[in-house]
Amino acid sequence: MATFVLVPGAWLGAWAWEDTARALRERGHTALPLTLTGLAERADQGGPQTDLDTHIADITEFVERNDLRGVTLVAHSYAGAPVTGAAGRLGDRLERVVYVDSAPFTADMSMMNLMPPEAADQLRHQVSASGDGWRLPMPPFEVLSLSSSLDGLDQGRRDVLRARATPQPFGTYTQRLAGPAELGSGLDRVLVACHDFRGLLDAGVPLLAFLNQPPWRRFDLSTGHWPMLSAPAELAGILNTAVS
Question: Using one digit for the tens of pLDDT, what is the confidence trace for 80-101?
Fold first, then answer.
């Protein structure tokens, strides 16, 4: 059986993984959702100094403190950045990395690099106007839907997501990933692609072409960008297959 460390994306905490973690445990796996500094129940631990390095340290220290080995490290969305950084530090404690609607970051890349200048400027304005200069509130769903599929999130799930989301420390978006940021050569690499990301991969976007080639193993999931909320059992099934 596998040991999963489940890392949530922006605005989320360990709570977002609850249903998927339960389904994994029912299959006999160890499933350990993680909340990053400044989010959910750890919101009061965040501050202007919270950045990408903070979240890389959160993941690294969690694995080391619990003396975990043979770890399958799972990243959703934004978590692709700190998980990539942590993977470079954890060495042979890791058996596998799984990117859920995400991808590994390269050295000197930040979340802000992934969006057009006008969108980045809009986020900066939002942080300045309503985030005390260091927090990024979760945007309205009509804004999120411009770049991330909401498929599978009925009104009830949207209400839960809105109610439990916490502002993201903006330093985690602006800080660039320090190099080297290479995944270990012997590390098993898995991609779970949902609707929009699957479309980008199938369109042959050059920046993502490597994800369609070995050693990457790709699994497609017919739901939107938050599969742990919209299709938790199906996501657990894919994760189970990936480690079998």
Answer: 999 999 999 999 999 999 999 9
